[in-house]
Amino acid sequence: MATSVFLLSLLFLFSTLCLMPGLTHAGTTRHYKFDIKMQNVTRLCSSKSIVTVNGKFPGPRIVTREGDRLVIKVVNHVQYNVTIHWHGVRQLQSGWADGPSYITQCPIQTGQSYVYNFTITGQRGTLWWHAHFSWLRATVYGPIIIRPKPNVPYPFEKPYKEVPIMLGEWFKGDTEAIIAQSLQTGAGPNVSEAYTINGLPDTFKLKVKPGKTYLLRLINAALNDELFFSIANHTLTVIDADASYVKPFNTEILFISPGQTTNVLLKTKPHFPNATYFMEARPYFTGQGSIDNTTVAGVLKYEQHSNTNTPSKLPVLRPTLPQINDTSFPANFSTKLRSLANSDYPANVPQRVDKRFLFTVGLGSNPCPKNQTCQGPNGSKFSASINNVSFTLPSIALLQVHYFGLANGVYTTDFPSFPLMPFNYTANPPFNHTHVGNGTKVVVLPFNTSVELVMQGTSILGAESHPLHLHGFNFYVVGQGSGNFDPSNDPAKFNLVDPVERNTVSVPSGGWVAVRFQADNPGVWFMHCHLDVHLSWGLRMAWVVMDGKLPNQKLPSPPSDLPKC
Question: Is the dihedral angle over the CA atoms 146, 150, 156, 161 positive or is it negative?
Fold first, then answer.
């Protein structure tokens, strides 16, 4: 009798679980092949050979679901070393697949291959992939579209159609030669000639039907520029940032930094409007260097029934975008982003803090080597740093030396938790703060440490915005402000209820931003500015998160095909 009752109870429980949407989704394994190859491409009336994936620019679209496993074989057919980073993917216990060169892996050399193997856990929305070696991501990038588990609806109106919108840059010159020259001379690199929408600097067209709702998956894949984006005479509803749902809000203009993604709903006009609308993007910049100050325009074109007469020439309407140095718009836009923070999608903000950090981020300089003429500030070389440490990449992957206990001589664990020489960060700095230190220094965190990190912009060599990207984690943006962070008064204003959850956040020009995260992912995790010029100059560091006690809290052994340096 007892056995029958037990079996009936078990059957009831199983049938109940089966009826719960998405709960029993074991995940599908999806296979992709990425051939890194050269391809001739024509833009702005000239042709050049660029590095691509499968000959496509932008690269192929990865479409998956939450809970799916991705197995992606990357084969390198070009002269350059290469790695691929799956930007924003948590990589829980799969740090070997994260992709940044010399951090989690050695590069894939010419003629070699590597299989990236990871699972999409607890994420849905839009992420993206890109090269993570030198400046190859200028042309090596593509979208990752993560749909919810089967039978789990969107927490917003189901769209009629979904469209990735990748914003990028186009350089007429060879980007590898551009950054090599900059690092050699110490000067700022040449800037791009144009911005692009889905790889096109001037001809992208999005055809829409009246009375429909479109989900636009926006990705800023630009190498060095934060961007404003708008569609003339249309309102956009923001519903997702960095593959995390947000409380919906309406806006006519978006602000999006390199590395960030934003999903928006576009509701088209109920009837054919007898007009053509431009969608445009142009840069936001407050620094002192050169900038590509152009505007890229695509076309939003309404389709009519074939039996309806359409005027041969429709008026063209253009959006109004903020000025290039409008610091108020990014600040106001970012404060509108709030997590859903409901029972289905909670905001698990760390309420207690185990470890606090204050990182200054900004530009600096290195002395010019002897017997060389340099073209940086006052005859020096441009550099960039976090807490005045300009990070030197090792010649072997940090994750390997960490896993095998071979850190001696490769990295040190004395990365400063706070600035060693505090000063008025957003005022004119004393001259001796211009020069930076150099080294391969990391922060070591015990497993599951709750971290509060304040990132403070400096005005050394000019105040500007810095989009900081953290690998291996999402963080909650709990506060931001202008001027210097006040540790006595600013924490009282932190939002610990529904802050936005992101993987990339802009440190405001002349200001600060505070984030919290739980270090629940063992491995070595890169954090860096996503303006690649600043990344190349050393605005980067690494967190080493130790193993926990349980099997699912430990970093697994490296795959057999992990590339060698």
Answer: positive
Determine whether 241 is exposed, middle or buried from the number of CB atoms within 10 Å of its CB (0-12, 13-18, 19+): buried
Torsion of CA 304, 307, 309, 315, to 10 degrees: 10
Q: What are the CA-CA distances from residue 234 to residues 249, 298, 311, 397 (Å)?
A: 14, 14, 21, 47
Q: What is the pLDDT of residue 428?
A: 83
Structure tokens at 72: 């992606």
Distance CA 456, CA 206 (A): 40
Which has the closest alpha carbon to 477: 345, 321, 308, 339? 339
Residues 430, 423: Cα–Cα separation, whole Å: 8
Helix locations, 347-447, DSSP H: 398-403
Q: Helix, strand or coil for residue 421?
A: coil
Q: How many residues does the chain have?
A: 565
pLDDT score recorded for residue 434: 81
Query: Of 340, 145, 300, nearest to 212 (Cα)?
Result: 300
How is residue 350 written in tokens?
A: 């760390």
507 vs 514: CA distance, rounded Å: 9
Closest CA to 33 of 73, 93, 67: 73
Query: Measured between alpha carbons, how far is 347 from 350 in angstroms, rounded to an integer?
Result: 9
**pLDDT range class, residue 515, cuts 50, 70, 90:** very high
Q: How far apart are CA 183 and CA 562, in angstroms?
A: 29
pLDDT in tens, 195-246: 999 999 998 999 999 999 999 999 999 999 999 999 999 999 999 999 999 9
Is residue 241 within 8 Å of 280, Cβ to Cβ? no
Both tokens of 304, joined, read 């009519």
DSSP code per residue over 289-311: S------EEEEEEE---TTS---
Alpha-helical segments (H) within 20-148 = none
Mean pLDDT of all residues in 424-438:
82
> Quick one: how far is CA 258 from the chain centroid?
6
What DSSP state is assigned to residue 158?
P
Do 242 and 502 meet the contact criterion of CB atoms below 8 Å apart?
A: yes
User: Residues 508-526: what's their mean pLDDT?
Assistant: 98
Please work out, in degrees rounded to the nearest 5, the angle formed at the alpha carbon of residue 494 by the alpha carbons of 490 and 499. Answer: 150
Cα atoms found within 13 Å of the Cα of residue 489, Cβ hemisphere only: 4
What is d(CA 554, CA 303) in angstroms, rounded to the nearest whole number? 54
Whole-angstrom Cα Rg for the chain: 24
> Whose CA is closest to 132, among 546, 543, 402, 469?
469
Strand partners, 360: 456
Supply φ then ψ for residue 410, to 5 degrees.
-105, -50
Q: How many angstroms separate the most distant Cα atoms in the chain?
A: 92
Distances (CA, A) of 283 to 112, 196, 246, 323, 462: 38, 12, 24, 9, 17
Q: Give the other-Cβ count within 10 Å of 511's Cβ.
A: 22
